[in-house]
Each structure stands twice: as structure tokens, then as C-alpha cells.
Specification:
3 helices; two-stranded antiparallel sheet; single chain; elongated
Length: about 90
Amino acid sequence: MTEFARGHMPVRYLGIPLAAQQLSVTDYSPLVDQIATCIRKWTAKSLSFAGRLELIRSVIQGVEYFWLQVFPLPMAVIEKIHRLYKDFL
């Protein structure tokens, strides 16, 4: 009647999935994929240890903290992100 498209949950708002119930670990895959994409772009560049550490602190942890403002991350997701940090360093 109103010609609106029927949506599905979780809805994304400002890049963060919002749902009526608690999100599962698979719902956090956009966060992990975004961080992995950033790291993949940076590995081609020759960066010092300090440069890599600064990129992790400023960019990747900024994205992680943005998600943490909305809701707590499961420990499995945090471990995946930290594994990506360690592999990049």
C-alpha cells in the first residue's frame, strides 16, 4: 500500500548493525572485515614498527571503539581483532 520495501534485521545505521535481540558473532563480521581490509592495504607499504603501531592505535582501534560505544563486543570478536593486530605487527 505504501510501496516501502520490507526490510530485515539487523538494520545497519552508521555502519553498525542494530537488531532487536543480542547480535551473534557472525553479525560482527563487517567489523572484522573492515579491519582486515585496512591491514591488507597497509602490508604492501614498508612501515617501521612504530608506524605500524601508530596505525593500529589511531585507525583500527578507533573503529573498534566506535563499535564499543554502541554495545559490548563478544570475546571471540575481540580475539579475532587482536590476532589481526599481532599478525600485522
